[in-house]
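User: I'm writing a tutorial on reading structure tokens. Could you give me a worked example: one chain, its sequence, then its tokens, then a sentence or two explaining what the tokens reveal?
Assistant: Sure. Here is the example chain.
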Amino acid sequence: MAVSVKIMSLTVATLGVISFIFGVVAENKKPASGTPIPGKGIVICKYPADPTVALGYLSVAFLLASSIAGYFSLFYPYQGKSAPRGAMFKSSSFSIFFNIALFTTGLAITLLVWPTVTEQIHLTRNVHQNLETACPTAKTGLLGGGAFLSLDSSLFWLVALMLAENAREDYFDEIEEKGASGEPLKNDA
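And here are its predicted structure tokens:
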């Protein structure tokens, strides 16, 4: 089965939606705080069992998979024909959406990894010398924001893929016109 733009777009969208779902569920399952258990000069924080850390890492993994698939789908030689990257980046709209997709991917990774790692640290380092500790958890809202940015990122990769397909068609049309007339095209500036 040959790889087509449709298959790649479905892959990017599916992975992005799965990342979004995992991120939202991780945000909803995160406890507000732990229960402090006082000891002799220490406080041990007991947290309820929750899948926040695992779901956060799964959300990051699917975001990375979606973004990698999105990036490679832009430059894949569909139907055995490869267009040079320079021809793609001649299109200003492609360049803009490509950079927006990269930026939202980076921001989504940041907003998903930061609270996930923070939550994991809170769960593993649960003994405190401060007797007034309130047994904190990761900042509320970051996982949800990262989940929405993950979905946005996959949508921007899809827009970039559509624009790449247009740029690829323009490039091959230009090549065919040059080959038919035997002379280079003149710019209509």
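What the tokens reveal: The mean pLDDT is 89. The beta strands are 35-38, 43-46, 127-128.
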